[in-house]
Amino acid sequence: MQVLKSQIRNRPDAQASWRDEYLQKKTTAAEAMREIRSRDRVYVHASCATPEDLLHALIARAPELEDVEMIHMKTLGCADYSHPQYEGSFRTVAMFIGDNVRDAIRDGRADYLPIFLHEIEGLFESGERPLDFCLLQLSPPDKYGYMSFGTGVDCSLTAARHARRVIAEVNPNMPRTLGQTFIHVSEVDRIVEVDHPLPELHMEPADEIQLRIADNVASLIPNGATLQLGIGAVPDAVLNRLVDHRDLGLHTEMFSDGVIPLIEKGVLNGAAKSIHIGKLVAGFVLGTRRLFDFIDDNPLFEFHPIKYVNDPFVISQNRKMVAINSALQVDITGQVCSDSIGTRLYSGFGGQLDFIRGAAHSEGGRPIIALPATACRGTVSRIAPMLDPGAGVVTTRGDVHYIVTEFGVAYLHGKTLSERAVELIRVAHPSFRDMLTEYAYQARYMRPKLVPVF
Question: What is the distance of C-alpha 81 from the center of its chain?
Fold first, then answer.
């Protein structure tokens, strides 16, 4: 009879064994980072799990290193390896651009790797982008020797399974989250005990425009819907508008503190979900200590790798899937730019198209793009005649369904270019509607109405 590794690890002798192994693997951050060599590729645990002590120790070795590739999604906290003084020692490859590496991308010291979130792990699994090291931040081990990825499974569990070496900070401040979130002591090569606060992301309260957008988005969400929400003031404001809804669910790449009040009121409970019934599913969180404490050992939440959470086929199995994403600019035909301002790279694909397509194929699903009608204090229309030169199209005009601004809801799916132009001009800021109408005439998207002459 075949004996599974998990069965062996659960035996009393195995429990004693992992404790010995843990002590043998325990070291300092400085000692652990001595293993990294020039031209190694180093994966960094993302979001609120950024292993800052390991990163500071690695940066201290900058004079000894050349062309170490630091690859990651959005991280919080330390990204000093992307600063000008470390050029030549480190090269950042961002699969989603956060605030802490945006300047390095702009100045050419770092690279952007455009990719759908659910496809990232395939780069590691296939060997297309092999990993030398994986740097993690984990919870302390349980009595069986399993440590939790805590605030973020994201792509990190898969990265750990395919990296040549795994080095982990073990931090008592990291919550123990449930789902596909565990790695055993035997699967980690070096352990560095730390005790520091996790990086946090605090949200600014929504302004008047964002609240109006949230009202319009909330009007599209039925009872029993399963939600995907991005990050920022608008998603949190949308959640605040749903207190009178019933039996909402969550299947989202990430969430923040804004879900807590709806869970406490019993509104967000997963009861009407068609898969993972009674569970709120995500890949990672971006939030504060309040959220970290809330998800700690909380069986309501299930965390899974992004390749599963963001798989459009899996997403589509949720009935009434409502995907709410943001954009920087939308042209008058419905092309959506979410990752750049002209040629200036700003963020990344993220999971936007994963969820737009998943929601589009969900029974009763609604894919939504929400954005303010203007930028630069009202001087620039985000509903534009055409995208800025160099702007990237994240959601194509064939994928777009709902565009929501503070002025209303435009439904574009199945509509001609002339019908789309009418819909988008209606939700543009009034100051720009004449300009957009004139452009639509000139581009032959709309036919000028004949005015009889008497």
Answer: 22
CATH of 26-193, one of 3.40.50.2000, 3.40.1080.10, 3.50.50.60, 1.20.120.80: 3.40.1080.10
Q: Rounded to an integer, what distance in angstroms lies between the CA atom of residue 445 and that of residue 398? A: 16
Cα separation of 220 and 123, whole Å?
Answer: 36
Token duo for residue 415: 């509509």
User: If we measure between CA atoms, which residue out of 325, 254, 265 comes closest to residue 291?
Assistant: 254
CATH architecture of the domain with residue range 208-442 = 3-Layer(aba) Sandwich (3.40)
Count Cα neighbours of 145 within 13 Å in the Cβ-side half-sphere: 25
Query: Smallest Cα–Cα separation from 426: which of 396, 380, 379, 383?
Result: 383
Cα–Cα distance for residue pair 185/190, rounded to 1 Å: 9
- Report pLDDT for 450: 47
Q: Considering the entire predicted model, what is its pTM? A: 0.93
Contacts of 434 (CB under 8 A, 6+ apart): none
Question: CB–CB of 228/248 below 8 Å?
Answer: no
- 253 as an active site residue: the answer is yes
Enter the tokens of residue 106.
């702009």
Which tokens is 78 given? 């330390």
Cβ neighbors of 358 (< 8 A, separation 6 or more) are 311, 312, 313, 314, 315, 316, 318, 321, 323, 365
Give the residue range(s) of CATH 3.40.1080.10 domains in the chain.
Answer: 26-193
Q: Where in the chain is the domain with CATH 3.40.1080.20?
A: 208-442
pLDDT digits (tens, 9 = 90+) for 253-282: 999 999 999 999 999 999 999 999 999 999
State both tokens at 94.
């961002």
**DSSP string for residues in 91-133:** EEEESS--TTTHHHHHHTSEEE----GGGHHHHHHHSSS--SE
Round to whole Å and give the CA distance between 237 and 372: 14
Query: 253, 302, 406, 423: which is the annotated catalytic residue?
Result: 253
Beta strands in 265-385 (DSSP E): 280-285, 301-303, 321-326, 329-331, 336-337, 340-341, 344-345, 366-370, 374-375, 380-381, 383-384
Residue 341, SS3 per DSSP: strand
What is the 3-state composition of the chain as percent helix, strand, coil, each rounded to the nearest 5? 30, 20, 45
pLDDT digits (tens, 9 = 90+) for 41-81: 999 999 999 999 999 999 999 999 999 999 999 999 999 99
The answer on pLDDT for 405 being more than 90 is yes
